Amino acid sequence: MLNNIRVVLSHTSHPGNIGAAARAMKTMGLHHLYLINPRHFPDPQADTMSVGADDVLRDAVVCGSIDEALQGVVYTMAMTARLRDISIEVKTPREAMPLLLQHAATQPVALLFGTEMSGLTNEEMGKAQVLVNIPADPEFSSLNLAAAVQVIAYELTVASQSFLPGTQEVHPAPHEQVEGFFAHMEKTLFEIGFLTTQNPARLMQRLRRLYARTRLEQEEVNILRGILSVATEYNERLRARYKQEHPDISKRP
Asked: What is the pTM (predicted TM-score) of this model?
């Protein structure tokens, strides 16, 4: 199961944190590190702070975007110290890790961590199915990045010791297929005139949350995209018919 888990660090500023995170991973049996646009990597400071986890650093995958880092992943948990103003499922590490292992038993999953200063953006949060919040003193809830990785990796290892794999009834679609559906849906909603609010991005966030709770399967994504395609074709036919019935409309300035 641990071989199906990737740790994704987004826009890490300090190379020492990358090395310390690699060390935290290796002590708990995790080896797949993905880095999204790190400011400095490779870097001697990362090597120093890894303290023997140089193989994790050597095999780290550097990506240019979050979609690249999550390619092939069917389930993503995002770490946050802040509760967001948009509806999303939030769990503690102890609640979340057994759920992550259920998916990792058969397919790739990801643990997503943000920058040291500001954490993950709302857009990055929208790529995840669940938020994970490490319980801490509300007066000082900010954990060092590597410390957060260590806490999550420890809870994951504890959960794996008592985990009993069962038959997985749901086989979620991979990240890139789901993202293709969201892009298709947003384009279609614009074309049919539904996304006319002042904040369409916020509406799309809510739609993402809705579908994240369903854990879309590949066949279901294909069905939904088929519906969107039919809606687009129908809208185009209506427009063409309207232009035929009102030929002067195209001549207006």
From this structure: 0.86
